[in-house]
Amino acid sequence: MKLKSLRAVMNFHRSRAAAVFIGVALAGAAACSVSSDPVDEGEFQKGVAYTGYSATAYDGDGPLLALDRLAQTNASWTSVLVTGYQDTIHSTSIDFAGPGTPTDASVERVIRRAHDLGLKVILKPHVDLARDSQHYRGEIGPDFTAADWAAWFASYGPFILHYAAMAERTDCELFCVGCELGTTAVHEAEWRAIVAAVKGVYGGPLTYADNQVEYAPAAVKWWDAVDFIGQDAYPTLTQVIKPTVEDLLAGWTSFRNKLLGLSETWGKPLILTEIGCRSVERGAQNPWDWQRAGAVDLAVQTNFYEAACRAVAGLGWLRGMYWWQWSPDPDDGGPDDTGYTPHGKPAEAVLRSWYLKLK
Predict the structure, then answer these.
(1) How many CA within 13 A on the CB side of residue 120?
(2) Contact between residue 138 and residue 181 where contact means Cβ atoms under 8 Å apart
(3) Is 7 within the bounds of a domain?
């Protein structure tokens, strides 16, 4: 099988361990010790997240045109999103065949198109809540019993292995084993079993996208099992409502030190599996707030992009960033848009310029 450049240097020799991760076999699999071979840090992953949220999101000509435009940002990587759903934070069953999940054929099509455009791909499965708008995936299982947790992981296993197998057959250069699953991530043995099973079906490097470095940097105790520490980065860097680049850079000092501490603790390179800021008034405060109402503020997004790219340039331990987000709708964005996309906004010009320079 043809391997892309990053995967080719990995020299993985991984056993076929998928069979250990089924039903009641989870507990036994959790006991196995997982360690990664040395990883070549390689190039800086100049990434943009490509995000569709329906079964037909990646169908038709529009998504291919949108991907073409994503490549014009001078990105070298894209993370392709696919989402499974559980009803609420109290649910133990994950569905990935419903109307909110892009079809396998359409996901594979955009991966092929990304590769044709010279982009490397991280396949990044998410779990979201279908009937619980008051919570998010990082709060799953507040009152789970041991049996509930066993049921949840038994459902998560087939979900993540399905996409790991897809990543293998489509030659994805990187695979993300999970995203922002904070309350689940403390279940170390179960996650080690998941990683072992993923390694049984996917031969490339792995990451996990955490989002707890600011308040719980020690929450994940199994970073040694993956190749890159992932962090979804939406830090409040300043309380200034209309911040300058310098205002934002001042906040980066503390945040960057937290990222560095995590990388040094585990001796692993780190990537920002997500980073973003909306073009909305007060967008620099709680940038993760996708529901904030307010007037368009193109400057806050532009300055956030500039400050972030300055802050990460030349850091050997930080090996990539993925800007959230780029829609498969080629008309998404523009100067009247308050969302995350940089498309058609001054932030896109900043991104193009920096992605020419970052190595």
Answers:
(1) 21
(2) yes
(3) no
Rounded to 5 degrees, φ, ψ at 175 are: -130, 140
Based on its alpha-carbon atoms, the radius of gyration of the chain, rounded to whole angstroms, reads 19
* Dihedral over Cα of 343, 278, 50, 14: its sign: positive
**Domains identified in the chain, total number:** 1
C-alpha closest to that of 7 among 33, 50, 37: 37
List CB contacts of 352: < 8 A, sequence separation 6 or more.
72, 73, 74
Q: Which residue in 98, 129, 201 sits closest to 158, CA to CA?
A: 201
pLDDT digits (tens, 9 = 90+) for 11-41: 333 333 333 344 433 433 333 333 333 334 5
The pTM of this model reads 0.90
pLDDT in tens, 185-203: 999 999 999 999 999 999 9
CB 49 within 8 A of CB 81: yes
299-342, pLDDT tens digit by residue? 999 999 999 999 999 999 999 999 999 999 999 999 999 999 99
Q: Which tokens sit at 244?
A: 């300058």
Q: What is the C-alpha separation between 121 and 351, in angstroms, rounded?
A: 18
CATH of the domain at 345: 3.20.20.80
Tokens for 352, please give them: 């193009």
- d(CA 31, CA 324) in angstroms, rounded, equals 36
Position 56: which residue type? T
Is the preceding omega at residue 72 within 30 degrees of 0, hence cis? no
Whether the predicted pLDDT of 225 surpasses 50: yes
Work out whether the CA dihedral 224, 82, 164, 272 comes out positive or negative.
negative
76 is a domain residue: yes
Structure-token pair, residue 107: 């996901």
Residue 159 covered by a domain: yes
CA atoms within 13 A on the CB side of 229: 28
Q: For residues 292 and 280, is the Cβ–Cβ distance under 8 A?
A: yes
Closest to 283 (Cα-Cα) out of 337, 214, 211: 337
User: Shortest CA distance to 210 belongs to which of 263, 154, 173?
Assistant: 263
Structural domain span for residue 191: 45-357
Contacts of 218 (CB under 8 A, 6+ apart): none
In a domain? residue 291: yes
